[in-house]
Design a protein that fits this description.
- The protein is mostly helical.
- The protein contains 4 helices and no strands.
Length: about 90
Amino acid sequence: MKRWFALIDATVLSMAGLRLLSAAIELTAAMTMLAFNDVKKAVAINALLAIVGPIIFIMTMTIGLLSLTDELSFAKLFWIGLGVAFILFGIYK
């Protein structure tokens, strides 16, 4: 198992780790909703998840883009950043 982790790029491993953390948070929230069995509490938990999702998304994209900065031109990074901004704008508006 130790050699398997050595074969994976550190950037990819950290991005996947953040996504696994996000999945664990989502699963915990779902189980908590079921445990409370109350619509008001479920809505409150869902509201907290609305904060967690974009934060994980931004962190994952930042890690990926930082690792690609030497391979991409400034113009391409600009367009990628603009696309991420549009996604976040669409989520919050």
